[in-house]
Amino acid sequence: MHYAVIARDKPGLLSLRLAKRDEHRTFLHGDLSGYRVAVVFGGPLLSPDEETPIGTLMVIEASSVDDVKALVADDPYSRASLFDHVEITPWRFAVGRR
Q1: Residue 34 belongs to some domain of the structure
Q2: Domains in the chain: how many in total?
Q3: Distance CA 37, CA 85 (A)
């Protein structure tokens, strides 16, 4: 099953996001086998200026939502309390390039 993760940053924490970005990327590009997940794709949500990151969107392949929750909880952004709200919902590919 695939899961969409949409995490919105708390207002005013751009400097925290930027400070944790390398750690966040290293974590997601590292060995995630202990979480039993695979990151299909992901990237920052942007403000209307199309430059400023305001959150995170990822699609994760996993056997259960609990595995996704564990991954998100250990993400350096989560550990730094960057996110105001995190939504995890089952997702199915329907259109687009594969």
Answers
A1: yes
A2: 1
A3: 21
Residue type for position 62: A
Number of Cβ within 10 Å of residue 67's Cβ equals 19
Is the overall model pTM greater than 0.90, yes or no? Answer: yes
Summary mean pLDDT of the chain: 97
In a domain, 96, yes or no: no
What pLDDT is stored for residue 98 in this prediction? 67
Type and span of the H or E element at 79 = helix 76-79
Instruction: Report how far residue 19's alpha carbon sits from residue 24's, in angstroms, rounded to the nearest whole number.
Output: 10
Q: What distance in Å separates the CA atoms of residue 27 and residue 32, rounded to the nearest whole number?
A: 8
- Supply the DSSP symbol for 55: E
